[in-house]
Amino acid sequence: MISKNLYVQITLRVLLIVAAALLFGWTLFDQKAYVLSAFPAIILVLSTFNLIYYLNRINRRIFYFFDAIRNEDSTLSFPKNTNNKIIRNLNNSLMRVNKQIQQIYIENSKQEQYFQALLEHAATGMFTFNKEGFILHSNSLARRLFGVKVLTHLNQLGRIDKALLQTIKEIQPYEQRLVTLNNEKSVIQLLIKSNSFISDKEELMLLSVHDIKSQLDEKELDSWRKLIRVMMHEIMNSVSPITSLSESLAGYFYTDGNIKTPLEINEKTIETTIKGLELIREQGKGLISFVESYRQLTHLPKPVKKRFPVKNLIENIIILSGSFENSGQIEMSYKVTPNELKILADEKQVSQVLVNLVKNAYQANAENQNAKVKIIARMGENDRPEIGIIDNGPGIPEELLDKVFIPFFTTKETGSGIGLSLSRQIMQMHGGSLKVVSTPGRVTTASLSF
C-alpha cells in the first residue's frame, strides 16, 4: 500500500515537472514570450525542490531509524498523527520494526543477565580474553583468586605474579596447567584449564581457574598416611622378631633374676645364642635394606635430558630382557610409529623405568603358557610421545590398582615395593606420567607419557 501511494505521489510530481519544463520551453523558444516564460520556470524550480524535499523526508526517517539501530538506541519514536498518508504508514511500519528490535534487546539483556548470574555462582573462576590480552568477561571468583577488584587486561596478572602471566600466555586450547600463586595471605595452587571459541569473527580464550590446594593437601596427607602405614608394617615385621628373640636369648643367661655363672652355661646355650644373634643380624640387614630403599626413593638425581631415538632404546631393553627369569617362555615384540620417533628425556632413567616395567610383566606371566609382552611407542594426544608395555597376564585386581604406586607396597614375596613408585617419580620429574590400566585375565597396560 505504501509503495502504491509513493509511486502515485512521485509520478504526479514528475509529470508536473515535465509539464512545467515543456511549457517553459514553448513560451521561451517558440513564442518568444520571455516574461511569460518566467511563470513555468518558477513552477519548474518549485516542483523540483518539492520532489527533492518529499524524497528526503522519507529518506531522513529511514536514515534516522537505521542510525538509531547502529547506535543501539531503541527509544526512537515517530509521530502517528500526520496528514501525509504515506509518511503515516511509513512511521507505523518503522515503529513496528522498532518494537521488535526493542524486544530482541530485552531478550538479549535477559539472557546476558542469566549467563552472568551463572558465571557468578560457578564454583570455578572464569574469564575470557582476546589476542591483544584484553579481558572481556570475568566472574568475581576469578578476581578474588587473583586478589584484584577489577580485571581488564592480562598485564594486571603480571603485576601479581610473572610466572602466572607467562603460563596464561603460553597455555594452548584444551590444555591445563598447575600454577603456584603467592599472594599476601597465603600460597595457593591454581589449576588452569583453557578452551577457545569464535565470537564475532574473533578468537577468544576461555580460562577456568580452580584453587586445588585443599585437594592437593588432602591427597598429600592421604599419601603420607598410606606410606606411614606401610613403613610401620615393614618396621614392625623386622623389629618385633628382634625384640622377642633378644628377650628369649637374654633368658638363657638368667636364673631367678640373677646372671648365670660361666659354669652354668652349656654348649647348647651358646649354640642357640649364636643362631639367635645371626637371626638378629639378618633382620637388622633387612631393616637397613628397607631404609636404603627409602633413601633411594627420596634422593633421585635430576634428569639430564637429551633427544634420542625411541627405537634404539626399546631394542636395548629387549636384549636385556633375555636375561630375565622366564624369558624363554615369553613372546616379546615391539612397534614404533613413526619409525624415527624421538623423545626428550634422560635415557638412563627412562631405561630404568622400562626395565622395571618389563620385568614386572615377565614376573606376572611366570605361569602363563601363552605369555606375550609387547612394547608400543607412538605419538599420543596433543602430540605427546607415549610408550606402552602390554601383557596378557593375570592382571591387577581393581581393589589393588590404586595401591600399586604406594612406596613399599607389593604383592610379591621377594619384592621391595619401590619399583613402580620409583618409576612414577622418574616420569613426574620428566614432566610426564605413568599410568597402569588392567583388565584381570585379559590385558594389563603400563603407559608412559612424555
Question: What would you say this structure looks like, in words?
Answer:
It is a single chain. This protein is α+β, with helices and mostly antiparallel strands and 450 residues long. The protein has 12 helices and 14 strands. It has a 5-stranded antiparallel sheet, sandwiched between helices. A 5-stranded mixed sheet has the order 9-11-12-14-13. A hairpin with a 2-residue loop joins strand 6 and strand 7. Helix 7 packs antiparallel against helix 8. The longest helix has 39 residues. The chain is elongated and about 170 Å long. The two termini are 73 Å apart. The mean pLDDT is 80.
Gross morphology = elongated
Secondary-structure element string: HHHEEHHHEEEHEEHEHEEHEEHHEE
Helix content: 40-55%
Give the integer mean of the pLDDT values: 80
Q: Which stretches are poorly predicted, pLDDT < 50 over at least 5 residues?
A: none
**Strands, total number:** 14
The largest sheet, given as strand count, sense and whether it forms a barrel, is: 5 strands, antiparallel
What is the radius of gyration?
Answer: 44 Å
Number of discrete helical segments: 12
Strand order across the largest sheet: 2-1-5-4-3
Gap from first CA to last CA: 73 Å
**Per DSSP, what share of the residues sits in E-state strands of 2 or more residues?**
15-25%
| Secondary-structure content class | alpha+beta
What does the secondary structure layout of this molecule look like, with pairings?
Blueprint: H1 2-30, H2 38-70, H3 85-121, E1 125-129, E2 135-138, H4 140-146, H5 155-160, H6 162-170, E3 176-182, E4 187-199, E5 202-211, H7 213-251, E6 254-255, E7 258-259, H8 267-298, E8 306-309, H9 310-321, E9 331-336, E10 342-345, H10 347-364, E11 372-379, E12 385-391, H11 398-401, H12 419-429, E13 433-439, E14 443-449
Parallel strand pairs: 9-11
Antiparallel strand pairs: 1-2, 1-5, 3-4, 4-5, 6-7, 8-10, 11-12, 12-14, 13-14
